[in-house]
Amino acid sequence: MIMTGRRTELKEKVIAEAKKFAVIVGYLWVLFVLLQLHKVAILREQNPLAPFGYQVGFALINALILGKIILIAEAFHFGERFKAKPPVYEILFKSVVFSVLLVCCDMLEEVFVGMFHHKTITESIPKLGGGGTEGVLMVGLMVFIVLIPFFLFAEIAQVIGEDKLFSMIFKR
Predict the structure, then answer these.
(1) Residue 145 — very low, low, confident or very high, per pLDDT cuts 50/70/90?
(2) Cα 169 to chain center, whole Å?
(3) H or E element: which one contains 57?
(4) What is the pTM of this model?
(5) I want to staple 73 with a disulfide (CB 3.0 to 4.6 A). Which of 22, 59, 78, 164 is the partner?
(6) What is the DSSP track for the chain?
(7) Domain count, the chain
(8) Phi first, then psi: what are they for 127, rounded to 5°?
(9) Are 105 and 62 in contact (CB under 8 A)?
């Protein structure tokens, strides 16, 4: 009897974590695909045949990796040093840190793809936002802004409950 209760509790926890992971990955995947579409749109001004297809797959891989990192960070109570302060501090802190992490992951991805195509690491480093520090900062700023609503909704869900937030958004 006790074992069945523990199993049920564990099953419910696994399902809740899987749902949370799916939401995180879905949001990040849409974000990454939009960033890739933006990049392709800019590249197509110079090259009408700029590829897009394989980048959707890389966007999903990046979303899965970063989604798992976000779940691990939550398990270690990442950003909770701001619990005594208004939630905006935690939201902005997480947005900054994860936007930096995301830009780094994007750069690593481009280096790995370049190495696969027999390029040197230097040749493979992406020219984010047109290249240089300024370009990297622009991309980082865009990601930072897009992550704010994500962490805002996560904070609201934590305060009022995920079911209530879902009901408020998707039900009358």
Answers:
(1) very high
(2) 21
(3) helix 53-75
(4) 0.73
(5) 78
(6) -HHHHHHHHHHHHHHHHHHHHHHHHHHHHHHHHHHHHHHHHHHHHH-TT---HHHHHHHHHHHHHHHHHHHHHHHTTTTGGGTTS-HHHHHHHHHHHHHHHHHHHHHHHHHHHHHHTT--HHHHS--GGGSHHHHHHHHHHHHHHHHHHHHHHHHHHHHH-HHHHHHHHH--
(7) 1
(8) -100, 70
(9) yes
